[in-house]
Amino acid sequence: MSLDINSILNPVVRDIPPSGIRKFFDIAAEMDDAISLGVGEPDFVTPWHIRDEGIYSLEKGMTYYTSNAGLKELRAEICAYLNRRFSLSYDPLTQVLVTVGGSEAIDLCIRSIIQNGDEVIIPEPCFVCYKPITQLAGGVPVTIETKAENDFRLTADELRSAITPNTKLLILPFPNNPTGGIMSRSDLYELAEVLRGTDIIILADEIYAELTYGDEKHFSIAQIPEMYERTVLVSGFSKAYAMTGWRLGYACGHPALIKAMTKVHQFAIMSAPTTAQYAAIEALKNGDDDIEMMRAEYDMRRRVIVQGFNDMGLSCFEPKGAFYAFPCIKSTGLSSDEFCERCLCEKKVAVIPGNAFGSSGEGFIRCSYAYSIENINEALNRIEAFVKHR
Amino acid sequence: MAEIDNEKKDKVLELLHTDCRISLEQMSTMLAMPAEEVADIIDTLEKEGVILGYGARINRDKAYGSSTVTAYIELRVMPQRTRGFDRIAERIYQFPEVKAVNLMSGSYDFGITVEAKNIREISLFVSEHLAPMESVVGTATHFVLKRYKYDGLICCKPDKDEREVISL
Lengths: 390, 168
Fold this sequence. Notes:
The complex is a heterodimer. Chain A is α/β, with parallel strands linked by helices. Chain A is built from 15 helices and twelve strands. In chain A, helix 6 packs across helix 7 (130-136) and helix 13 packs parallel to helix 15. Chain B is an alpha+beta fold. Chain B has a four-stranded antiparallel beta sheet. Chain B has a two-stranded antiparallel ribbon with strand order 5-6. In chain B, helix 1 packs across helix 3 (35-47) and helix 2 packs across helix 3. In chain B, strand 2 and strand 3 (110-116) form a beta hairpin. The radius of gyration of chain B is 21 Å and the shape is extended. Chain A binds chain B through residues 19, 21-22, 25-26, 29, 36, 39-41, 43, 127-128, 177, 300-301, 303-304, 307, 373, 377, and chain B through 15, 19, 26, 29-32, 161, 163, 165-168.
């Protein structure tokens, strides 16, 4: 081997650290009888009527590309859905782009806006993709450490102090992975006060919008009239309809932004998978009950896991969204990494260290409750045994 | 005790139907209700006869050493004057081999599920007990060959977590 590939690689790519999420999975996968609270995807199978529509589209021979922006009928259904659930109005022809998962929409949005030196504000802990995508686009990630005492919400003061003349984009990932934190309507109005009069675009990653618990339904920052124009709303089918493997998401926003994102999309992807798009139409038309069934199930598990952690002395604030609990493990005197490593080696239960989602996640662990109650109970028993006999 | 709302009853029933061995404490946490309230609801449901009993759902095809034949019998009858179908149903469900009896709409009157050790026992039951009943006009017996799904549970369900490792 004479080629030194590493010296040829784009240094930005080369220097992206390996994912802290995968590390523990890889160890767990080698172990017999290891159990996990690690997986960040629904344990439900896509509801049958949705799968059936996908199959039917194949039977009918719908195996061509769709238009770059996605099937017109799907875009219309997305708009109808956003209007029905969140009172948002988008034009299906100019304001919607169907993407390969919400992830592609995030990538497109950042790449369409960010160039060398532009700053992107990223509240942490958060899903791991925003920072590397920003760096790949030549941008500068400016992270904000949200606080446990604020239930990991982004506050107006924190936002204000992170803004500079170079700020171009604010990532707003709520309901949040990994904390389960949400932003209420009044929280968002406070952020809007800070953003009004600036040119900052908001990337609202609302993939978990359907998974909120308690009395308050999800509220999108795009619902605030002055914020509508500057918000790129990113969502998808993975979490709400348990359709992760179909790889389908979407972005909605200002026609000029969607047009720019569609340009990038057409070169990289051309169009999102056709079968998935037909299935998604069915999901939006007849899937509201499925969402409610799964949400109710997650809600019960959520109560069990939060109660379980608090009972064993790992204080856990009440997560009001997504399907993660984010208990604090500082009382054990261990770092997040040590806790997860020893928990896995000694009790064979895999959880994810909070610092994998940003340094402010240190002292916490992410535990998914997208698992059966039996699995959750067994994991809680093992973690409790670990905490007690450490 | 005040009237319990149906939504709460439904939630309790759903949990018990999924796993009747679930603890009161666990139900209380899952439903965000005090354990005493859950206990009261269960008590009421038992007294009202909504909950008839608690038992395991057994996959007989897998049960070691057990051999059971199940048949579904369509029964056509002449309803009795003044007593309608109920009197006939009461006579039928007394037989221990009869596991379920339903009055049906459509081309026959009763749908009956019968379990026995072998086909011969079921044949005897039909020819000696069911068919000779004076109101019975005709029977059609269908034997169950394989059970795929039972009371909402898939019989040959793989319990492996198929989700792969992914950074998420």
